[in-house]
């Protein structure tokens, strides 16, 4: 446990040194706030940019508060996910390339604790950034559009946080499987997109699909987006997948350093 | 939905602008203090200044060299 804490502190320092602890939360903050603000000003923007007749502009309905919140979740799901994957794409492969990993792993440190320390730091930065952006978006939505139900907002936070954790874990896994950071980012994003598309477009029920998580988060806020399925299996499968991915990442690191 | 006065709107917009400025200034400070960057420094300065939020983010992701 003590060695794990040492490793985690190293990862935390790395977050600070790479300035991720500054730019990721700020990016998420601006991302989360921009959705309610643009939704609020959309009629004005359309009116001043011209081209549309005035009665058309007036007939565009303002979205309600929960739709705006679901909209900012969508922003986090695309741009936010991209930022997180890009920021953690080199987590293992860079250290292997620079020799840091070898230097640490000659000491009596298990591969699994090396990986889980990295994983914990990725999770910490993801949850921190997402929570900052989400709470800011909530505050702006409530101020500009009116109140949103508290329980559904918190459920949205938890489901979507789990989804981000899942994709972050995928990035870590691919980073230890592949030597190229770009391939790791692409692999994790592609797999995440694939799961998400499968969850929303295949005609049969997929209560096991982690790609449903973002839908669950948005569906709690905006009933029109809900697919009405139960969440427990999704959460359980995602947690199992995360654990399996961590084990696999540690095994792959072991294989690489033996050869 | 109640109408919102101009001063209230301003107080909502200012935090966003401050957050973007903080990010931009941090990126510029990091750029100036960095020994080496991927590509010329003046190019990154332009990207950060003109590219707003995305420019700063791009610098943090792609511009820095860790060694």
Automatic annotation (TrEMBL), chain A:
Spans through the membrane: 21-42, 73-92, 112-140, 152-175, 182-204, 231-250
Molecular-function GO term, any one: ABC-type transporter activity
The keyword ATP-binding is annotated on this UniProt entry: no
Gene Ontology, cellular component aspect: plasma membrane
Keyword Cytoplasm: no
Pfam family, one: ABC2_membrane_2
Sorted UniProt keywords: Membrane, Transmembrane, Transmembrane helix
Descriptive protein name: ABC transporter permease
Organism encoding this protein: Cohnella lubricantis
């Amino acid at each position: 446990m003590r060695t794990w804490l040492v490793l985690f502190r190293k990862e935390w320092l790395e977050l600070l040194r790479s300035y991720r602890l500054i730019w990721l939360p700020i990016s998420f903050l601006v991302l989360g706030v921009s959705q309610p603000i643009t939704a609020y000003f959309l009629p004005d923007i359309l009116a001043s940019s011209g081209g549309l007749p005035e009665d058309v502009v007036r007939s565009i309905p303002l979205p309600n508060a929960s739709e705006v919140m679901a909209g900012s979740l969508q922003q986090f799901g695309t741009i936010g996910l991209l930022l997180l994957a890009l920021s953690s794409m080199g987590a293992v492969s860079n250290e292997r390339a620079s020799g840091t990993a070898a230097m640490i792993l000659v000491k009596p440190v298990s591969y699994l604790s090396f990986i889980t320390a990295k994983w914990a730091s990725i999770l910490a930065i993801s949850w921190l950034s997402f929570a900052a952006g989400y709470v800011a978006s909530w505050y702006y939505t409530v101020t500009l559009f009116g109140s949103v139900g508290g329980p559904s907002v918190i459920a949205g936070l938890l489901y979507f946080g789990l989804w981000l954790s899942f994709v972050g874990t995928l990035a870590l896994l691919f980073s230890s499987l592949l030597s190229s950071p770009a391939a790791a980012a692409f692999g994790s994003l592609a797999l995440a997109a694939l799961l998400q598309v499968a969850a929303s477009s295949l005609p049969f029920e997929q209560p096991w699909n982690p790609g449903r998580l973002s839908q669950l988060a948005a569906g709690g806020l905006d009933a029109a987006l809900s697919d009405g399925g139960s969440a427990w299996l999704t959460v359980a499968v995602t947690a199992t997948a995360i654990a399996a991915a961590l084990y696999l990442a540690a095994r792959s690191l072991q294989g690489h350093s033996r050869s | 939905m109640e109408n919102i006065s101009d001063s209230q709107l301003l107080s909502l917009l200012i935090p966003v602008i401050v957050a973007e400025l903080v990010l931009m200034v941090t990126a510029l400070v990091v750029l100036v203090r960095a020994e080496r960057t991927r590509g010329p420094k003046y190019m990154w300065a332009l990207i950060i200044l003109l590219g707003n939020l995305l420019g700063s983010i791009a610098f943090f992701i792609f511009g820095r060299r860790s060694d």
